[in-house]
């Protein structure tokens, strides 16, 4: 390139975890004085890139270059020393230490006797908070801070290290509009001082407001690096998704049957309040909203893995015992959870054990389980879903993301549910599998299954859902019919703005 | 302004109340015991209590540092044993050696044992519980093979070594001075130096510590070496105080040490608590045991009380944590 | 991953067989029927306590209080006997008391959500302390011979000890539960990923609670057997046994992090430890020096698999780099 040498260059890096290639041959430059957006769907490999820049992961192949020379980070300390500061999606604070200590960790101001200068440390924290326009007590422990406040402390931490390269992995997800604006003004001033910014976000209005350049990734691969000004939002989405939107979501029209699920006035203190909606047999109802709006939490309370404080959940008119996944399963509910690795699967266990886990008791004869019954059940369902696998006795962790998701679906479909709750059903899986999952959901609904789908992907919501329940900050913001639901109407409801 | 501006500050300092709680409990216990038997506050009785606390407090100091990093060192009793036997053997073979050499030998033996623990935990990726349970056996076994049933008696040890336990500096026994120095200095370092705060950070959130670029390996090895070295020092004090040392010295001490630390308010999940709290815990356990004798209560209650205190202490920590979490959730609830 | 631990199981079983063969060839008196009887009696407490301990460690928890529960029931057995209760009443009573000790552990761990390591270190001290309170440093010895004789006796006076029946029956029950029932399946799921188990409708807390109750009951039973074997109820009976049990379970290939391991592996681990100690003792190596072997085996049982997998990982990465270059 003719432009100045990049402050940092990602050069043809590849990183695999087991059989899953998270990043394959990705290259892009970061220039000083420029904010660079990194976009892609969930699972496109953005976070893996961040972790390589942060020194957490080492690239399998390829290199990182700073000021034109190759660098090799043995750990986060090296990246930090090289002037890279990272704000992670999940806050990484020390709950037992004070806010000021969290900010100063690693470069606390010292007195002559090399003791920590607490006064200077607190003053420093206060100065940073003033710059960010927030008011937090630097002496309070980080434990108990709200997510937004934690994120602000993370930002203060990054600022205090005076990094040349600032990487932000969805820093705004939990912030209010005012806080976002304040953050941006600080980031802009850093940028103007010559720092390079790498900004990861799902909010296109933020990208266009903040960034000069954008790199688009899809399924672990680099798609394009362009000037933001040269692209429309539609261009970016099309390249992220890599397909035409309408063709992908073939929801058949079904005459809705009886009411399967009736949620009324469901509340859980501090999480969600007064949630009411119904789902009929043959319907797909989508729960839409921003990250943190409480969608997964509502459905986990319905299924009984989380408790709730008040309200009722009725299945086919009968009240469901709260806080008992077992009762929910007996009533015909199934939940394909959001976090496949933590909630959906037991990674170390074999595919067959995972598939049969929820109904091992039903497969047992005289209380005893013999390999045959489990294997047979697992084989039936994995082949129905066309899961690509070596042997059913392989650990499920060895499968690719898409096939892992199929195992989770097999696990729950094998319980013959009448109401299927799917939480982010296509997160982090390849395009082909995505289409298969959508087709599957559609045909299940056509067979009379009631489906509740939590999804952050707008095209998926609009393509699949008969009705869209939009949540905002733990409350129902709108319930939209298929005809009413458009990209704009859902987003406006989710963000609490009036349609322009 | 963010909503934070409007929030009243909450009193978070559970730790201070914990240490205050121990002091109050101690005061009540001493008061009650003294009323029943005024001799409890006599010079000799106080002196005995302090001397008995000293060894436990030195070990509790190292253990507290290890527990703060969200680890545990169960091998300390065996390290005391091997160090005590080593030092007693060296001193009986070379009676001319000064006390400081004895102390250095003890520290070195303990540090080596601690280093092995730390290396296995950090580089072998074996949990501290398993490592130190294993080395608890191994170090004790080595001592037994070495001793082969023999013991070092007081009359084989040089007088200056044995006198060390009884000698005073300005009326304060050396043992107590050493314990005060160890507890005080470690508390100070843990509170005011970078390395101390990093140890807290490592226990508070191990993944965040890695991300923050803290030298986790160095610090962890340091914590285990400290715990080993202090157990080694305790071995020297043990040999000097009791004079007779066989291979079983310090057997089962790990239980009292862990109890002192936990009762002293160091959270078993790591990240919080203070070293001087652990020192207070050691004092409390010692005073309870001697109060039982003075109050003419069956001595056999002592261990049961230690166990009950451990369970109560971690239960209390948990309840306080749950209450705070609940009040915070209520306060932060915008919905 | 699962394959790696499968090899560890098999390796331990093979090693155990090897040690048994070599010991009977090399060590005088090792292969005699008399020594076999002794070995089974030495095996008895470790193996029985190891059965529920395996379950608990598979779920990712630990119970260090078992030996103290054993001591407590032994003490109480002596106290009850001194107070004129019949042995037929005392034995079930002691098992129930063991179970009650387990209830307290289970409640603290699953009800209050306290870490099992800290709780059971606490109750380790508590139960042993209570044992001392009950019996002090005294001993009760005059238990009826038909009971003490049964424990030390052999079937028809031959080489097979009576207690071997008990070991085989209990090991079979625990083995079948762990490896061929829905409960067993759920234990592995809980240990490998408690959250995913919860999402699959498994009652994690309740399951763990009952494991501690069973562990306590078995420790109570072993307290009875121990007392009868040595014809002596003492407060310090079985002190330190928890370490041998944990060592044997980990040696048998159960992961301290939960989710992995098999009962045959654990049985081999117990036999290996006991046989080694027995053989070395016959060779006049002091009992305490054997601790070095026990401790080293405990550490190695976790260290070796870790080293193997990290070496494998490095090797794979290197291969990947080479193929890319």
Automatic annotation (TrEMBL), chain A:
Membrane topology: Peripheral membrane protein
Organism: Paractinoplanes toevensis
Signal peptide (from-to): none
Subcellular localization: Cell membrane
Presence of the UniProt keyword Membrane in the record: yes
Designated name of the protein: Ribose import ATP-binding protein RbsA
Residues covered by the ABC transporter domain: 8-244, 254-498
GO molecular function, one term: ATP hydrolysis activity
GO cellular component terms attached to this protein's record: plasma membrane
Keyword Cell membrane: yes
Keywords: ATP-binding, Cell membrane, Membrane, Nucleotide-binding, Repeat, Sugar transport, Translocase, Transport
Pfam families: ABC_tran
Major site of localization recorded for this protein: membrane
UniProtKB/TrEMBL annotation, chain B:
GO function terms (MF aspect): transmembrane transporter activity
Xref: Pfam families: BPD_transp_2 (PF02653)
Membrane topology summary: Multi-pass membrane protein
Primary location: membrane
Keywords on record: Cell inner membrane, Cell membrane, Membrane, Transmembrane, Transmembrane helix, Transport
InterPro entries in UniProt: ABC_transp_permease
Lineage top rank: taxon: Bacteria
GO cellular component, one term: plasma membrane
Keyword Calcium: no
Function: Part of the ABC transporter complex LsrABCD involved in autoinducer 2 (AI-2) import. Probably responsible for the translocation of the substrate across the membrane.
Protein name: Autoinducer 2 import system permease protein LsrC
Gene this protein is translated from: rhaP
From TrEMBL, chain C:
Pfam family, one: BPD_transp_2
InterPro entries on file: ABC_transp_permease
GO molecular function, one term: transmembrane transporter activity
GO terms for cellular component: plasma membrane
Source organism: Paractinoplanes toevensis
PANTHER family, per database record: ABC TRANSPORTER PERMEASE PROTEIN YPHD-RELATED-RELATED, AUTOINDUCER 2 IMPORT SYSTEM PERMEASE PROTEIN LSRD
Membrane topology: Multi-pass membrane protein
Subcellular location: Cell membrane
Positions of transmembrane segments: 6-27, 39-60, 80-104, 116-135, 155-178, 209-228, 240-258, 263-280, 292-311
Keywords attached to this entry: Cell inner membrane, Cell membrane, Membrane, Transmembrane, Transmembrane helix, Transport
Protein name per Swiss-Prot or TrEMBL: Autoinducer 2 import system permease protein LsrD
């Amino acid at each position: 390139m003719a432009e100045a040498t990049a402050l940092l260059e990602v050069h043809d890096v590849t990183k695999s975890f087991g059989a899953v290639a998270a990043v394959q041959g990705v290259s892009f430059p970061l220039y000083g004085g420029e904010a660079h957006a990194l976009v892609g769907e969930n699972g496109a490999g953005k976070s893996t890139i961040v972790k390589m820049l942060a020194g957490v992961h080492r690239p399998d192949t390829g290199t990182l270059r700073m000021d034109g020379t190759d660098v090799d980070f043995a750990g986060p300390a090296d990246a930090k020393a090289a002037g890279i500061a990272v704000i992670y999606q999940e806050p990484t604070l020390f709950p037992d230490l004070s806010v000021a200590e969290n900010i100063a960790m690693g470069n606390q101001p010292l007195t002559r006797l090399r003791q920590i200068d607490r006064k200077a440390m607190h003053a420093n924290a206060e100065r940073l908070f003033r710059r960010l326009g927030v008011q937090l007590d630097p002496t309070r422990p980080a434990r108990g801070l709200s997510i937004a406040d934690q994120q602000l402390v993370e930002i203060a931490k990054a600022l205090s290290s005076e990094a040349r390269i600032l990487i932000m992995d969805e820093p705004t997800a939990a912030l209010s509009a005012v806080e976002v604006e304040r953050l941006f003004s600080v980031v802009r001033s850093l940028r103007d001082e010559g720092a390079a910014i790498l900004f990861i976000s799902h909010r296109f209005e933020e990208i266009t407001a903040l960034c000069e350049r954008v790199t688009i990734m899809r399924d672990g691969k680099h798609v394009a690096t362009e000037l933001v000004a040269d692209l429309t939002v539609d261009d970016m989405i099309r390249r992220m998704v890599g397909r035409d939107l309408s063709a992908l979501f073939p929801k058949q029209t079904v005459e809705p049957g009886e009411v399967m699920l009736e949620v009324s006035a469901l509340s859980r203190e501090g999480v969600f309040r007064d949630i009411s909606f119904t789902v009929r047999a043959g319907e797909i109802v989508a729960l839409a909203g921003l990250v943190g709006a409480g969608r997964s939490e509502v459905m986990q309370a319905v299924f009984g893995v989380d408790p709730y404080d008040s309200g009722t959940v009725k299945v086919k008119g009968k009240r469901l015992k709260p806080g008992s996944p077992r009762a929910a399963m007996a009533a015909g509910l199934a939940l394909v959870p959001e976090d496949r690795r933590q909630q959906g699967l037991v990674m170390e266990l074999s595919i067959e054990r995972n598939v049969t886990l929820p109904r091992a008791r039903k497969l047992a004869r005289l209380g005893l389980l013999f390999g045959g019954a489990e294997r047979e059940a697992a084989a039936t369902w994995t082949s129905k879903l066309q899961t690509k696998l070596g042997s059913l006795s392989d650990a499920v962790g060895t499968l690719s993301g898409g096939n892992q998701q199929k195992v989770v679906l097999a696990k729950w479909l094998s319980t013959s549910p009448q109401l299927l709750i799917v939480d982010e059903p296509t997160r982090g899986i390849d395009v082909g599998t995505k289409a298969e999952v959508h087709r599957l959901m559609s045909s299940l609904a056509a067979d009379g299954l009631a489906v509740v789908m939590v999804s952050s992907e707008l095209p998926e919501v609009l393509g699949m859902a008969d009705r869209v329940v939009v949540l905002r900050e733990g409350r129902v913001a709108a319930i939209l019919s298929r005809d009413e639901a458009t990209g704009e109407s859902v987003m406006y409801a989710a963000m609490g703005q009036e349609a322009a | 302004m963010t909503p934070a501006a409007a929030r009243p500050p909450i009193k978070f300092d559970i730790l201070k109340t914990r240490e205050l709680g121990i002091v109050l409990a101690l005061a009540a216990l001493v008061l009650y015991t003294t009323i029943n038997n005024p001799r409890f506050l006599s010079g000799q009785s106080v002196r005995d209590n302090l001397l008995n606390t000293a060894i436990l407090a030195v070990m509790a100091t190292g253990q507290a540092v290890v527990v703060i990093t969200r680890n545990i060192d169960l091998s300390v009793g065996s390290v005391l044993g091997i160090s005590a036997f080593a030092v007693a053997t060296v001193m009986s073979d070379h009676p001319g050696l000064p006390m400081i050499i004895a102390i250095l030998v003890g520290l070195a033996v303990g540090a080596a044992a601690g280093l092995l623990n730390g290396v296995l935990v950090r580089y072998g990726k074996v949990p501290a519980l398993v490592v130190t349970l294993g080395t608890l056996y191994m170090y004790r076994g080595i001592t037994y093979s070495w001793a082969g049933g023999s013991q070092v008696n007081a009359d084989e040890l040089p007088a200056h070594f044995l006198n060390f336990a009884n000698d005073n500096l300005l009326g304060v026994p050396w043992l107590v001075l050493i314990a005060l120095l160890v507890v005080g200095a470690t508390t100070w370092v843990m509170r005011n130096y970078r390395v101390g705060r990093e140890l807290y950070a490592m226990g508070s959130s191990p993944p965040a510590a890695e991300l923050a670029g803290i030298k986790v390996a160095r610090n962890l090895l340091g914590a285990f070496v400290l715990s080993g070295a202090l157990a080694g020092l305790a071995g020297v004090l043990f040999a000097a105080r009791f004079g007779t040392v066989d291979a079983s010295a310090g057997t089962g001490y790990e239980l009292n040490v862990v109890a002192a630390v936990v009762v002293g308010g160091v959270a078993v999940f790591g990240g919080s608590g203070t070293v001087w709290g652990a020192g207070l815990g050691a004092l409390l356990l010692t005073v309870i045991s001697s109060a039982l004798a003075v109050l003419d209560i069956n001595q056999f209650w002592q261990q049961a009380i230690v166990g009950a205190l451990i369970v109560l202490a971690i239960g209390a920590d948990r309840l306080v944590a749950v209450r705070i979490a609940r009040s915070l959730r209520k306060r932060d609830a915008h919905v | 991953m699962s394959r790696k631990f499968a090899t560890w199981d098999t390796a331990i079983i093979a090693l155990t067989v090897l040690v048994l063969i070599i010991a009977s060839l090399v060590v005088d008196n090792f292969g005699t029927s008399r020594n076999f009887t002794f070995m089974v009696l030495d095996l008895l407490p470790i193996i029985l306590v190891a059965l529920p301990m395996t379950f608990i460690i598979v779920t990712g928890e630990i119970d260090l209080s078992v030996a103290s529960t054993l001591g407590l029931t032994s003490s109480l057995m002596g106290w009850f006997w001194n107070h004129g209760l019949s042995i037929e009443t005392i034995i079930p009573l002691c098992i129930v008391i063991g179970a009650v000790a387990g209830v307290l552990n289970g409640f603290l761990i699953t009800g209050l959500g306290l870490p099992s390591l800290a709780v059971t270190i606490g109750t380790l001290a508590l139960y042993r302390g209570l044992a001392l309170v009950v019996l002090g440093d005294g001993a009760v010895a005059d238990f009826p011979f038909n009971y003490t004789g049964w424990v030390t006796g052999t079937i028809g006076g031959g080489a097979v000890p009576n207690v071997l029946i008990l070991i085989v029956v209990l090991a079979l029950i625990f083995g079948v539960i762990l490896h061929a029932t829905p409960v067993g399946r759920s234990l592995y799921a809980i240990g490998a990923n408690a959250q995913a188990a919860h999402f699959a409708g498994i009652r994690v807390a309740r399951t763990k609670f009952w494991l501690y109750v069973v562990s306590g009951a078995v420790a109570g039973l072993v307290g009875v057997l121990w007392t009868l074997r040595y014809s002596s109820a003492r407060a310090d009976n079985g002190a330190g046994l928890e370490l041998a049990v944990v060592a044997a379970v980990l040696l048998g290939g159960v992961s301290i992090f939960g989710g992995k391991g098999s009962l045959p592996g654990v049985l081999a681990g117990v036999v290996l430890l006991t046989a080694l100690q027995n053989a070395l003792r016959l060779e006049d190596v002091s009992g305490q020096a054997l601790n070095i072997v026990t401790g080293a085996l405990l550490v190695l049982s976790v260290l070796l698999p870790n080293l193997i997998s990290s070496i494998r990982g490095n090797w794979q990465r290197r291969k990947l780099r080479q193929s890319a270059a």
